[in-house]
Amino acid sequence: MNIIRRHASPLSTYRPASMDDSFGRMVENMFEDFLAPGSPYSALSRQGADDIASPRLTVTENDKSFEVEAEMPGVKKEDIKVAVENQRVSIEGEAKRESAQKEGESIVYAERITRHFARSFTLPSEVDESAAQARLENGILMLSLPKKRATEAKKLTVQ
């Protein structure tokens, strides 16, 4: 399981301050969901809605961190990618069907297929990517995402 750490985009400095309020986050999330994999409006939907699933999430928050649980049934930890960038979390995975077909046999009917999972979401505050942890247990991906400490303003002496 890989945690990919990314740095802020150079364009993030041009992000309007209004996008930091709750309404701005709501609008941003609406567009992210609108264009998410599996959405009928996504370019990826041309591959078929069954090809990409969006894992169900539970996100909880305490004073120090965000805890995320995502359903990833049939996915091995080697086939999961988690990316954390500031407030943005992206999860991708693939449940691969292993062929048990023996010589001389042919598959008549198969409902178990390779399944792709993808989900991205934005948290209310920034995450300390260097301390983020991920583990997979019984088909549930668990992320522990510590919050970044608020930095105090530097006080200057007027000369």
UniProtKB/TrEMBL annotation:
Name assigned to this protein: Hsp20/alpha crystallin family protein
Species this protein is from: Noviherbaspirillum cavernae
Family: Belongs to the small heat shock protein (HSP20) family.
InterPro entries in alphabetical order: A-crystallin/Hsp20_dom, HSP20-like_chaperone, Small_HSP
Pfam families linked to this entry: HSP20
Domain spans labelled SHSP: 48-159
Residue ranges of coiled coil: none
